[in-house]
């Protein structure tokens, strides 16, 4: 089981945490929503929850609850820029399909 970050994603997370001035790392999760079923949640991790699984990649701690990990195990998180648009992108080997806008996925 693993979650990984590209170099660009790790740099962006580090800069966000430094600018914020606090945080243990990145919190990743999923929620039911959208036209395809699930959407990714990404936030700062300020504490360790009892059901967290913790991965470390490129100097960043990544916190994920056990239930979400079942759906996103093996995911690589990237950070991409296209003109003035920038966003985290998820390469999840478990998905069966995505909605046209890329905001949600199904397993």
Q: Could you explain how this protein is built, in words?
A:
The chain contains two helices and nine strands. A hairpin with a 6-residue loop joins strand 8 (97-98) and strand 9. The mean pLDDT is 87. The protein has helices at residues 7-20, 66-72, and strands at 4-5, 25-33, 37-45, 52-57, 60-65, 76-82, 85-91, 97-98, 105-106. It has a single domain (4-94), classed as Hypothetical Protein Aq_1857, Chain: A.
Number of H/I helices: 2
Please tell me the total number of domains. 1
For the residues shown, what is the average pLDDT?
Answer: 87
Question: How many beta-strand runs?
Answer: 9
Task: Provide the CATH superfamily.
Answer: HesB-like domain
Question: Could you please say which CATH topology applies here?
Answer: Hypothetical Protein Aq_1857, Chain: A
Question: Unreliable runs, pLDDT <50, ≥5 residues?
Answer: none
- Per the principal axes of the C-alpha atoms, what is the gross shape? globular
Tell me the distance between the termini.
Answer: 17 Å
The CATH class label is Mainly Beta
List keywords for this structure.
single chain, 107 residues, alpha/beta, Hypothetical Protein Aq_1857, Chain: A, four-stranded mixed β-sheet, three-stranded mixed β-sheet, 2 helices
Secondary-structure blueprint:
Blueprint: E1 4-5, H1 7-20, E2 25-33, E3 37-45, E4 52-57, E5 60-65, H2 66-72, E6 76-82, E7 85-91, E8 97-98, E9 105-106
Parallel strand pairs: 1-6, 2-5
Antiparallel strand pairs: 2-3, 4-5, 6-7, 8-9
Short description:
With 107 residues, the protein is an alpha/beta fold.
